[in-house]
């Protein structure tokens, strides 16, 4: 090979390496996960404050309930701990999505997501999944604190808990996306959307065994299965296939429905020219 050929080949290889490569969903998922990690590291007081506040309210609930209910509360404390764990997880996932989109609207950075090659909806979906991961980690810390306060022992098979809890909260993610779409379209509706978090308490404690149709509501069926996992020690493969099928079907329906509402709400906002207005 001559010097000219060697120079031409090297120059061609350098040009190939310098060409920008198109971004993929892997790069997008990596970016939003790093973003959530940096937000946690750079603003730890906010994350720690959320854990402290959640534990404070549980302590008030626990000791106040002991004064009022006494033995009745002690007999059902395992179910209360599991229910509160699922409530903190679902509330955190829901509010993080809806509040994040509301913040993007106020900051005026919403258009950056719309102009990405991925589109606004996929970016919001992956950001929601990243926030769910962070919320799950903080909720586990809250769960450990509740177990120390109450002296309760619960089963925690990691795979089963992650699968059942994630499928349960997926329906809440759908509600969060729908709320985010409404926020983009109507801007300041946080007062109304915040009321839904109190409804999660009813859904988590819904009597699905005595009223079977309540299983169709978000969180209700997943809460019942999570109680069996963490209180009774039931493993994932020990559940009936129909029960797991209903759990994933409910998660898919609400997540898809919320995603569709978010997509069409943002499209309508763009059509009306109010996407970047506040």
Automatic annotation (TrEMBL):
<keyword id="KW-0812">Transmembrane</keyword>
<feature type="transmembrane region" description="Helical">
    <location>
        <begin position="43"/>
        <end position="64"/>
    </location>
</feature>
<feature type="transmembrane region" description="Helical">
    <location>
        <begin position="162"/>
        <end position="186"/>
    </location>
</feature>
<protein>
    <submittedName>
        <fullName>ABC-type multidrug transport system, permease component</fullName>
    </submittedName>
</protein>
<feature type="transmembrane region" description="Helical">
    <location>
        <begin position="241"/>
        <end position="262"/>
    </location>
</feature>
<dbReference type="InterPro" id="IPR051784">
    <property type="entry name" value="Nod_factor_ABC_transporter"/>
</dbReference>
<keyword id="KW-1133">Transmembrane helix</keyword>
<keyword id="KW-0472">Membrane</keyword>
<feature type="transmembrane region" description="Helical">
    <location>
        <begin position="136"/>
        <end position="156"/>
    </location>
</feature>
<feature type="transmembrane region" description="Helical">
    <location>
        <begin position="193"/>
        <end position="214"/>
    </location>
</feature>
